[in-house]
Amino acid sequence: NLEVTHFESAEEAFRAFTSTEFDLVITDVMLRDTMDGLSLVRMIRAQNTHIANIPILAMTGNDDSQLKIDLLHAGVNDYVTKPPVEEELAARVNNLITNKRLADQVRKQQRSLYQIAMTDQLTTCHNRHSLSEYAPKYIKDSLRYEFSLCIMILDLDHFKQINDEFGHSAGDTVLKEVGKLLMATCRQGDVVARIGGEEFLILLPHCSLRDSAHKAENLRSMIELSNPDGIHVTASIGIAALIDKHDNDFDKLYKAADNAVYLSKENGRNRVTIDIESAATAGMQQTAV
Predict the structure, then answer these.
(1) Less packed terminus of the chain by CB within 10 Å, N or C?
(2) What is the pLDDT of residue 19?
(3) Where do the domains of the chain lie?
(4) Residue 112 region, left (φ>0) first, then alpha (ψ -120 to 50), else beta?
(5) φ, ψ of residue 154 in degrees (nearest 5)
(6) What CATH topology corresponds to 10-111?
(7) List of residues 6+ apart from 41 with CB closer than 8 A
(8) pLDDT tens digits, one per residue of 40-69
(9) What global pTM score does this model have?
(10) pLDDT tens per residue across span 234-264
(11) What is the CATH number that goes with domain 128-282?
(12) What are the catalytic residues?
């Protein structure tokens, strides 16, 4: 019950291999044209994706021990000598394909578990675990490639009052709708994370402080107009840019934006505040709105 695709040269086989999913490669060692079976194995194993792990069964009419060792070192999973015993070949093929499909299932489960571990289950935004993985990479890339990096923290105003007045189910709806709004309005490459009960954070690579302030005000306005589940919702927002004073430390960058959120709340809520030191570096006023 196997579908077999046959190629007359290693070059032809490799071209097909890189564009089509297979469960097994069976190759003779001696092939026509310039590439032999050993070279084909090495090229497959050199790929940078999961397809490099495909099982490979080599066939050879040469019973030379050194050749077999070379094949194993190159990455073949098994080999048979020609002419093969039909039952033996069938058993080896079946074992390799079965193991490969089991490995595929494990890899799929690992991806699913990773997604669960890195995603906030209520809003489907990134969570703190995911943020702790992305943030250092973004800071490192910002320094290496010299692009601006800002963060925005949004805290929904009077959220406890929403839960008390309308119930936790309504509160969950508010969080889901705000999370959906943030993800829908952010660019590819931005990271939207829910980092607390009613608190969200957005990583903004390649975004100046001035552009971040405009984006923050747009989001503040959109949240105020959203009325999820018929509930009036507003957000206090703080933004900060990665500057020398932060010593390339995400915790310091986060603290700067968090302090700006605190000032937004202190000054009446439903507003955007820029971290004072980030603003001074960019030549802007602290309060955006």
Answers:
(1) N
(2) 86
(3) 10-111, 128-282
(4) alpha
(5) -120, 125
(6) Rossmann fold (3.40.50)
(7) 27, 56, 58, 71, 74, 75, 76
(8) 999 999 998 888 999 999 998 887 888 888
(9) 0.73
(10) 999 999 999 999 999 999 999 999 999 999 9
(11) 3.30.70.270
(12) 198
